[in-house]
Amino acid sequence: MSEYPTQFDRDALLKCARGELFGPGNAQLPEPPMLMMDRITDISGDGGAHGKGHVVAEFDITPDLWFFDCHFPGNPIMPGCLGLDGLWQLTGFNLGWRGWKGRGYALGVGEVKLTGMVRPDRKQLTYYVDFTKAVQTRRLTMGVADGRVEADGETIYLVKDMKVALSES
């Protein structure tokens, strides 16, 4: 389905952040420290729970990550919004991986449930994005997906109906 590989290491993700993977003006990941994953271990346009595409990625947790010092002093916790942003980042990445053109924009999310926390003693987050819809028409390029974040194998975030669009303007 795609001319791109189905796995990406950190160097490839940084290439995407610089606009070098999908080309200028197309889907881009943020640069560190806002890049919320270290590698993508699997991606497709027709796999996942609904057969409409998926992404699986990992983020290594270390006690020296930037957000632990400021959220909250004396009680370090990764902000839940950063986990959500990681899911949005991966949703947009999948659209670019499909070869679809335009810059990515998060449009919203239907439901978010936070059932656990990421503290400095965690080792790894695993992100799962399962598309429920991927649309490309003359006027609209958009992905809708459900997501899950696991910390060391424990589900801590559940997300329904994330929406990400690509726009060429």
Automatic annotation (TrEMBL):
Pathway: Lipid metabolism; fatty acid biosynthesis. The keyword Lyase applies. Its EC number is 4.2.1.59. Pfam families: FabA. Its main location: cytoplasm. Transmembrane segments: none annotated. One of its GO terms (biological process) is fatty acid biosynthetic process. GO terms for molecular function: (3R)-hydroxyacyl-[acyl-carrier-protein] dehydratase activity; isomerase activity. InterPro entries: FabA, FabA_FabZ, HotDog_dom_sf. It catalyses: a (3R)-hydroxyacyl-[ACP] = a (2E)-enoyl-[ACP] + H2O. Homodimer. This is 3-hydroxyacyl-[acyl-carrier-protein] dehydratase FabA.
